[in-house]
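Hi R.,

Here's the chain you asked about this morning:
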Amino acid sequence: MVNELSTLWLQNAWMRFGLAVVAGLLLAVALRAVAYALLRRLAKSHPVTSDVMGRASAPMEWLMPLLTLTIAMHVWPATPSASFALLQHMLLIAVLAASTWLAVRCLGALEGAAIRRYPMDVADNLRARRVVTQVRVLGRTVDVIVIVIGASIILLTIPGVRQLGASLLASAGVAGLAIGLAAKPVLSNLIAGLQIALTQPIRLDDVVIIEGEWGRIEEITGSYVVVRIWDERRLVVPLNWFIENPFQNWTRTGSQLIGTVFLMLDYRMPLAPLREELKRLCSEAPEWDGRVCVLQVTDANERAMQLRALVSASDSGRGWDLRCHVREGLIAYVQANYPEALPRWRGELERSGHPTEQPPMPHNPEPQHSPSPEDGGPLREET
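And the predicted structure, written out as tokens:
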């Protein structure tokens, strides 16, 4: 009799559990349909809502069934056994993980909407680069914070892990010191990311010189920066490097630059026609922005004089092309019109009416003999 009652109670418990699961899934389907209908209506007039809907669809597919199942099992419990308690706890962990995933995706949608308001494919994109850099760096930082908070809440729901953490912290400060040392790179990069987002020593698409390499800031993540080198290589630099080390930023306040062209020419080169040729080259070059076009003698030595041409361009890429164009044009002009002005070695040859005094022959104790072909001299025929 007791066995039959226990079997009936167990069957009824599994039946209640099945009903709870079915009710939760049906409720999830109904809520999903209502939520998507409302979001589609809002998306027609609010593009941000459309972005959130597109990014949040994947985590919502998991969150809503898990949430309804958790609520159904707590409201209509199947049995107070340990197995069902473990199942409820696993559902709670899954709900927290899906919620963290949903928060990260929603933040990503807001980040994308903010970036689209400031396109970077315009001529004057300084403000756009500033805003996009702040949004991306702060977005990565907030993502890390949300993930850390979600993981902490999940760990706090596990009694064994919570007790283990409490015992480690209460036992000694060695554990805290070890954790602090291990997390130092992560924390330093996190703080450096906040500093870069607020002070902006670098921005996306900035032209920088790092470790002697010329490149552009291609990507700023939560822990490192990717620099696209001019020859298509990628230089990966930690975030805290930009806070602790000096570097060159060619587009900090603007993209206009002044380029230099150096030439070494002979003193016989007249400067006036060369200045006119420089003006002609700059006026015909589409890269020149019309600001600076100057030719100066900056140095001189016993061999040649050093000429420096200063030319300006709207950005570093055009400045490089303009410098090459001016250098090639000036060299071609000197070769065609003043070839005697090209650098050369100089020496003096002394001429005199008196014969040059020959040095005395060295004393040779060996007997004299007639020169032979092996001696390098001509043969004399004896008579």
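Confidence is low (pLDDT under 50) at residues 165-176, 356-383.

Let me know if you need anything else.
M.
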